[in-house]
Specification:
Helices cover about 35% and strands about 25% of the residues. The mean pLDDT is about 95. The strands form two sheets. The chain has a nine-stranded mixed beta sheet with strand order 14-13-12-11-7-10-9-8-15. Strands 3-2-1-4-5-6 form a six-stranded parallel beta sheet, with helices on both faces. The chain has two domains: about 5-130, Rossmann fold; about 130-290 and about 320-335, Dihydrodipicolinate Reductase, domain 2 (2-Layer Sandwich), CATH 3.30.360. It is of the alpha/beta class. Helix 1 links the parallel strand 1 (about 5-10) and strand 2. Keywords: Oxidoreductase. InterPro entries: Gfo/Idh/MocA-like_OxRdtase_N, Gfo/Idh/MocA_oxidrdct_glycsds, GFO_IDH_MocA-like_dom, NAD(P)-bd_dom_sf.
Length: about 350
């Protein structure tokens, strides 16, 4: 990729995903550099910067946004902070790549998208799974009619939350904790991308199975009804230690079975089944999904194409997750509200 000028990234949030996924992805791009990291605790920011070879540490969003060497910010703080931080970044003229879910309400997410649009900056949502070769291949095959008319889908995204992440996600509903806002948003975005369809309504049941406390769920099962009439089952959890992930789409002519594809890496496998014949599908050479996402975002900043997942995509996945959470609380089907 030819980059017109260097891009300096500022991290709002000294997070695990920034350390393990985003720093390598950014440094894999020519002329892209992580210039600074911000944490509300300056000593933590300094320690994080030292451990990750980031030049500057800040303890406020304002100070980071005032840095002239930064033109892109990556936001990975807890979910209730994304809204104000995105608005501040847009006002400062910085491009924004935000973690999912975008925020805690449709109204706030809509305001984030509008603020970036009005400021003329690129906004993306870090929905990394749509960058996987497996999902891109499934999307292409469905669009080409390889399985006929899609009728049903299933997503199995029940995993075990690593101990290092067992903090606010399990105990703080005010920060957007819980498996629905953490994982169901991923299911939604991946289903939307693969099927090229939108969710109309959701029916869901949630539970606590040993990790979460208070008003936070660690398990959810449910069904999404898409506008085409397709029904999609989903099972998301923080509590399942001994199972792989999976994604299936069943059509009038054939079915697609994908295994190990709801985790970012390794790539997993995709199979096409027609009657009694099952064959593995070539999904191309595997590339790290975060590297793909960062490359596409930088290209959008350069004026070429759009982010892998836009701010609008993030708004849509949030809307479905909020509907799933409401359904689980009410014990009834809920129509998705996108605005």
């Amino acid at each position: 990729m030819n980059i017109g000028k260097p891009h300096g990234w500022g991290f709002i949030g000294a997070s695990d995903i920034a350390r393990n996924a985003m720093i390598p992805a950014i440094r894999a791009q020519p002329h892209n550099f992580v210039k600074a990291v911000m944490s509300s605790n300056l000593e933590r920011a300094k320690q994080y910067a030292s451990e990750t070879d980031i030049p500057v540490a800040y303890d406020s969003v304002a100070a980071l946004l005032a840095d002239p060497d930064i033109d892109i910010v990556y936001i990975s703080t807890t979910n209730e902070l994304h809204h104000s931080q995105t608005l501040a970044a847009a006002k400062a003229g910085k491009h924004v790549l935000c973690e999912k879910p975008l925020t805690m309400s449709i109204e706030a997410a809509t305001e984030m998208v509008k603020a970036c649009r009005d400021a003329g900056v690129v906004m993306g949502t870090n929905h990394h799974l749509r960058n996987a070769g497996a999902h891109r291949t499934m999307r292409r095959m469905i669009a080409e009619g390889k399985i006929g008319q899609p009728l049903a889908a299933r997503v199995f995204h029940a995993v075990y939350l690593p101990p290092r992440l067992q903090g606010w996600r399990l105990h703080k509903p005010e920060a957007g904790g819980g498996v629905i806002l953490d994982i169901t948003v991923h299911d939604t975005d991946t289903l939307r991308f693969v099927l090229n369809d939108d969710v109309e309504s959701v029916t869901a049941f949630s539970s606590q199975q040993g990790l979460a406390s208070g008003a936070v769920e660690d398990t959810v099962m449910g069904v999404m009804r898409f506008r085409s009439g397709l029904l999609a089952q989903f099972h998301d959890a923080f509590t399942i230690k001994h199972a792989g992930t999976g994604f299936q789409v069943h059509g009038t002519e054939a079915s697609l079975f994908a295994a190990g594809v709801m985790k970012p890496n390794p790539p997993g496998k995709v199979f096409l089944q027609h009657e009694d014949k099952m064959e593995e599908v070539d999904t191309g050479e595997h590339e790290d999904v975060y590297v793909v996402g960062v490359r596409n975002f930088v290209q959008a900043v350069e004026g070429h194409g759009s982010p892998s997942a836009t701010g609008e995509d993030g708004l849509h996945s949030l809307a479905v997750a909020l509907a799933a959470r409401e359904s689980a609380r009410m014990g009834a089907s809920v129509r998705v509200r996108y605005q």
